[in-house]
Amino acid sequence: MSKLNLTRIGFLLKNRRVESGLSIRELSIKSGVAAGTISQIETGKTSPNLVSVYSLCETLNFPISALFIQDDTDRVKLVRKNERTSFVRNTSNGESIVESLVTKGESRMWGGIIDMPAGTNSGDYYYHGGEEFVFMLEGSITFSLDQVGNYILETGDTLYYPNEIGHRWENHTKEPAKFLIVSTSEFRQDTEEDSK
Description:
The protein has helices at about 5-20, 25-30, 35-40, 50-60, 190-195, and strands spanning about 85-90, 95-100, 110-115, 130-140, 140-145, 150-155, 160, 165-170, 175-185.
């Protein structure tokens, strides 16, 4: 077990003990684990045996599995506004439709902010796996779901749909529009290599 994991285990157990309003001595009496051992576990100075950990978790009503899961900090990804990766998703009526990614790295979800100039559209219907969620940030667009219908989305509106339903969108107004799109399936730009 790595030092980082020992520190994390100690931190979680100490937090739970404090939340429960118990001193180390009181926890020792209730759990049967020596006070000195609890102190060393909480400071990450010793690798606890399973019996001690089980007794402490049972006494503190804390799931033992929570101590051994992957460190969540490795799965948290922060993207600052000035760190977004942007690309031209497609062009329509001579205007570029720009997408700025708001997620990074490998994850189960992908998200981007799409800027739609007035009078532009996304092109043909997209069909792919997963699910998608749209939140209108500014302006208005018409969102079309193949064989389902058209939805006029205004600022603050949301739309959810399974991605196997063909979907496309159009800014039918004379003002720019912007929306957030979050999907469980990453957008792929077709390349010449893909079309061969």
